[in-house]
Structure prediction request, 980 residues.
Amino acid sequence: MSAVIAGPKPSLITLLASIYGVLALTFLSTFAWPSVNEPVSVGIVADNKPYTSMVGRTASGFSIDIVREVARQSGLDIEFRAGTWPEVFGAFERGEIDIIEGISYNDDRARTVQFTKPYHIRQMHLMHDPVNPLKNIDSLESLNDYRIGVVRDVYFRDALQTAGVSLVTYDSIPGLIRALAFGWVDGIIGPELTLDYYANQAGFRFLEIAGPAPLGEWSKEDFRLGVLKENDELFNVVSSGLAAIPDERIEELFNRWQEYGGTSVAESSGFTLSDAHQRYISEAGPVRVGFMSDYAPFSFHDADALQGLSVDVLNRISDLTGLQIIPVPGQWSELYPRFLNRDIDIMANISKTEEREAFTRFTRPYHIIPNVAFTLDKNLLFNSLADLQGLKVAIGSGIYYEGALREALGDNVFSFTAQQAMFQALAEGSVDVALAALPNGNYWVRELRIAGVDIAGEMTLDGMPGEDLRFGVRPALEPLAFIMDAALGAISQTEMRTIENRWLGTSTRRNQPPGTDPLTFSEAEQAWLADRNRRLTICVDPDWLPLEGLSEDNKHLGISADIFALFTERSNIKFTPLPVDSWAESIKAVKERQCDLLSMAMETPELLEYLSFTEPYIQIPSVLLGRVEAPYINTLDDISDQPVGVVKDYAFLELLRTTNPHLNLVEVPSEKTGLRMVQERKLAGYLGTLSTASYNMQELGLADLKVLGRIPADWTPGVATRNDQPELLNIMQKLVSSLTDEERKSVEQQWAGLLEPTVDYTLMFQLTVGAVVLVGLLCYWNRKLGRLNRELAAANDRLAHLSVTDDLTQIGNRSYFDREFSKSFHWCQRHGAGFAVAMVDADHFKEINDTYGHDAGDRCLVALADTMRTHFRRDTDRLTRFGGEEFVMFTSFSDREELVSRLEGFREGLAGQTTCCNDEQIRFTVSIGLATGTPGKDTVPAEFLRLADKALYLAKQNGRNRLEALTIESPAEDQAARQG
Prediction:
């Protein structure tokens, strides 16, 4: 029975299952929302990287990849619709969008929306600038003392307002990031991944996550897909598609966007050049690449090596392509004209503009950085160029936005060829604002130790969102631009992030006043101090007041003593000085590890062998002192043949021997000894610091010494620690960083009081007794003093002349050119006069040196200079030796033809004469490049020099021994030419 009954059941069940399956498929195909002809619309937020973003019609991001995986698993045909969250959610509620991405569950929404399981949960975090940190944040109320930035209409805004938090709202997370970077808010709240992503992308890598935001129930945001309740079928398909994605795949996608910006790690491997491109690279040979030498952290010189982000990127391109590179460092004002003249093949730090596209082939940008306004004005807020009206604004010469800025601000824009000079002008108050790339500006603010600098805002001009750094290739090498662009695209995100972290990880921190960092020691540092009972032995210079010294009872004195007293207050570390009699003994003691650190020392290669150094905590002017009758000096070269004293073992001595090897330096045991030797005429001068020299001159009563000149190498001492104890260096660096500007100034002012002049009444009595004798000698003394003054004035005149005169040719040198060129140009600019620059270069001069010797070459240069003097005698004519065999003549003119005639007469006259040397009769010629024009309001002096150099190149190209002339059109002529 059972066998008979059991027989037909499987067939019936199978038949019923088949029928049900067909009906189910028919039902789903009929009623399921998606169809081939009707794509499903998915609403996304347009600017929520790295989760969602929309560029043109292309959506990308972690959440976008999740939605595409859902579509692949379920067979959905999807299209993305982007907007702000209020726009997207409103359209979804109205039924205009089928699926909403990134929606979080709450009870109110659940009445109308069906939610999938969360595919991602993110924690809301606080981000801050560690220079101005958020401290002790454990509740919403603890945020009340800070300005907190949030995105407008964010879901937790009401909770913050209810708690009394001072809110500043912005339209987007990029806006939040900039507000925090520029110091407009103290902290911002958002998702950790998104905040980090935008901070890194904008170059604000100094911003850090402070920790989870204390939002309670609002602290976590769940990411889900949402479908309206009337679309059950669509919801089932979407839920099934999401459930089908393995957790490992979701984690892989998240890590890809978190670490690599969405790029697969393997995507950049296997880059190869085509055979044709390999041949091109091989045939091209080495190429000359122009790098700005003061554009840190992108390209700059340090320890005689060119380095920076741009250098590393180009080196990576070289690795991938085999391209051979010859770096050519220099200022932009030097490199750019050489690039235009084809002396340089590639520019490494160039931005793309419409004007430059005519003569440059650009790669894609390898880095985009914001341009910001640095200022000392706490009240300046920079949103548009109108905010800079009436202010003196400094920019780098030739920067891509110079034209737009001059059009808006006129004569209040000042261009600088060197970034360092631009920020020195800001520090001195010569300009009100310095516009520069953020990392570069921060570098110079730190290097020059400019206190109180704020970022007033970011400069964004139409079509210029930031400074796009690219490689620019001259058109003749156009295939090279394509090859470099392909190699740039092949550099993996991992490699690029490594390069960026190396150079931007700490370099873009704003120069807020030190002392704002909380002073906390790590567990390892605390343990290290505990092992020593928080007692350290220090070595000091015993006789270097007011900077530092030791009393008879071995008490630490001076500025460094007061600084270390502050260190003790905030760290509870006791610093005990080791008894020594000289600086040399201190050096010996620290080298033998008898003491833990030097309280005030400057970094030198020799000391680095056994010491590590903190950042400097004081800057001390260096001076040369001499007798009162000695002439003032302009440079150390003025006394290179005379003995000058420096204290033995001072870092300054090693520095001077490296930078000025020609100086006749004499080691002395102490500063007092050195000053005495100057007074006794055993030394011509003594090199030391202004503060200690003034102190010792007063102590010794040396009234017959004076400061002869400032030395361009200030003392910048820090704390030097023994290099076998890395914990000690970290501890002392934290203590140095804790000092505020006010504390440093207070200590310096306190010791400056010791330098106030005092009255010696014994000396006054002696002078009174001797006054009778002095009256009798007064007439004789006056006559002698007058003669000495006349001799001194004549000597100073001779020194002034020598400082700007070329030793060989006796015409102006490069210093003379730097002084007079700008004067002459601006005179012509003010008076509407013609300005002319002629560059003169001896033809085939190397052959003269190789054939007849360098002595003959020198005689030819002297003959060239003498001939120039003969032909250019007018008051406005200026003659300089620019370098080597190159000379420059610049002058004002009213008759261009007459000027050309004078130059031709000079050229022909030189060609017709002979120069005698060792019985040889030498003839040589010159090529001349002439630039003329009437300087307009926006014309810069460098333009004349660039054009003259271009004309000189043409003269050489066209056969040499000739003059080529080019004209700079005045603004009026240029306008007339365009109208014609």
Observations:
- The chain is about 40% helix and 25% strand.
